[in-house]
Design brief:
By secondary structure, the chain is an alpha/beta fold. Helix content is 44%, strand content 13%. Helix 3 crosses helix 4, helix 7 runs parallel beside helix 8 and helix 8 runs parallel beside helix 9.
């Protein structure tokens, strides 16, 4: 199991929003570094050509005008997503501890603490470079990933699921039932937002539920995606529980 991470993701100075808050990344890495079997790997930044497979040149120019630092960190985050996807394609499940998040970034716009769509960049470049033809995306963030939908929804052979059930029991059943119904794909990617937790903004899921979701993704990938799976950090803002929730997800996801 590979953890994609770069120390630059700790820097909170690129923005003043909850996703950029100081200590948010550290609470995750502190938990994961307790497990010596997890292999940490530094990603390179995504190249502009790789980013432009999803985003318009105008969008990139606007981001650079707003802040070169934001653009550079967003490109590094996108590179982390791409590294996780390539690792998964090669048979090594991966989780990318990256920021800024990306699932609210559309081809020519962005909001919700996002600038570039990490998931879309990962999948589209994997399709280009590694020749996969299909992908399933599970987005379990509290907020629907409109950017994922806008970037990938019209692409051939890509399916996106955003669970919306109102309580944890129905939520887990919704994910489980959908996985059982789905066809085979070349890879499954997860936009992993942890703000549905009972002690975060959503107030719905428990830590053990993230372990169950990770296990369902693992089983789905083995049954229908040749074991290929990767996940990218999206939301999650209570530092007291975020690291534990990420670790729980990985415990189910990796086995």
């Amino acid at each position: 199991m590979k953890i994609i991470y770069h120390p630059k993701f700790k820097d909170p100075s690129y923005a003043s929003d909850p996703a950029a808050e100081e200590g948010r990344i550290e609470c995750i890495t502190k938990e994961l570094q307790k497990d010596r079997s997890l292999a940490f790997s530094k990603p390179p930044a995504a190249e502009q050509e790789e980013i432009e497979r999803v985003h318009t040149p105008d969008h990139l120019e606007e981001l650079k005008k707003r802040s070169e630092k934001k653009y550079d960190l967003a490109a590094l985050s996108a590179g982390g997503a791409l590294a996780a996807a390539v690792s998964a394609y090669k048979g090594n499940p991966s989780f990318a501890v990256i920021r800024p998040p990306g699932h609210h970034a559309s081809p020519d716009s962005c909001w919700g603490f996002c600038y570039l769509n990490n998931m879309a960049i990962a999948i589209e470049n994997l399709k280009e470079k590694e020749k996969i033809r299909s992908a399933f995306v599970l987005d379990f963030d509290l907020h629907t990933g409109d950017g994922n939908i806008n970037c990938l929804g019209g692409r051939p052979n890509v399916t996106i699921m955003n669970p919306r059930s109102s309580d944890s029991t129905r939520y887990l059943k919704e994910v489980r039932d959908r996985f059982q119904e789905e066809k085979k794909y070349d890879i499954v990617g997860v936009s992993a937002g942890f703000d549905e937790h009972v002690e975060d903004w959503g107030g719905k899921l428990k830590t053990k539920d993230y372990r169950k979701i990770g296990g369902m993704v693992k089983d789905f990938s083995k049954e229908k995606c040749e074991g290929r799976r990767f996940a990218l950090l999206e939301g999650g803002y209570n530092h007291d529980v975020l690291g534990k929730n990420v670790k729980a997800f990985i415990e189910g996801f990796r086995a």
